[in-house]
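User: Hi! I have a protein structure encoded as tokens and I'd like to know what sequence might fold into it. I'm fairly new to this, so please keep things simple.
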């Protein structure tokens, strides 16, 4: 083995270590929610040779946490353009009318509510709609671990907690039952703010 090939291998190994260290630093910044710094660190890690899809995924998360949906979509598009395999991608953008559709709601109750709002439309287009939800994650337990161990606030069993008609505060109008909507589409006689309607 020549001295030049040994030096090249050492340089390549050194670059790989630098890229891995930069990516680790970026992930720590992302974990601590220092989003702007995390994005800069992810860009640097990718420049040093870290996996582009992994860096894009980190930038996607930072954009989503920041509420910058356009930037998140750009990262999705970049990942797709590189053509790497994505175990979470079922739909490739092709027409799904008349086909079986799997609707994945795997990130908790909020995602399930959001994604399931599309279920009626999907049912009219797909031959069969399969809804996949996250397994229930029951946390808490008997007192003093929790004050109410009858249900959970995450996973599929969360519906047991959230469907109890305790409060619909800040609920989007299109998710409210028809009986509770301000425009009263059912014409129900009711009292609102002490006034009979």
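Assistant: Happy to help. Inverse folding works backwards from shape to sequence: for each of the 197 positions I chose a residue that suits the local structure. Here it is:
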């Amino acid at each position: 083995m020549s001295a030049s090939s040994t030096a090249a291998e050492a340089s390549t190994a050194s670059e790989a270590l630098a890229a891995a260290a930069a990516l680790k630093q970026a992930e720590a910044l992302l974990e601590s929610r220092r989003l702007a710094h995390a994005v800069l660190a992810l860009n640097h890690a990718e420049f040093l040779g870290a996996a582009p899809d992994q860096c894009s995924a980190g930038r996607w998360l930072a954009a989503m946490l920041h509420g910058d949906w356009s930037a998140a979509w750009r990262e999705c598009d970049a990942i797709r353009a590189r053509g790497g395999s994505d175990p979470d991608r079922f739909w490739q953008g092709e027409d799904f009318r008349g086909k079986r559709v799997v609707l994945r709601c795997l990130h908790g109750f909020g995602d399930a509510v959001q994604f399931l709002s599309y279920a009626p439309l999907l049912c009219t287009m797909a031959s069969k709609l399969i809804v996949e939800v996250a397994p229930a994650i029951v946390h808490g337990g008997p007192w003093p671990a929790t004050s109410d161990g009858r249900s959970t606030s995450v996973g599929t069993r969360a519906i047991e907690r959230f469907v109890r008609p305790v409060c619909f505060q800040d609920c989007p109008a299109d998710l409210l039952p028809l009986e509770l909507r301000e425009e009263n589409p059912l014409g129900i006689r009711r009292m609102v703010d002490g006034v009979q309607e």
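A useful reference point when you look it over: The radius of gyration is 24 Å. Feel free to ask if any position seems puzzling.
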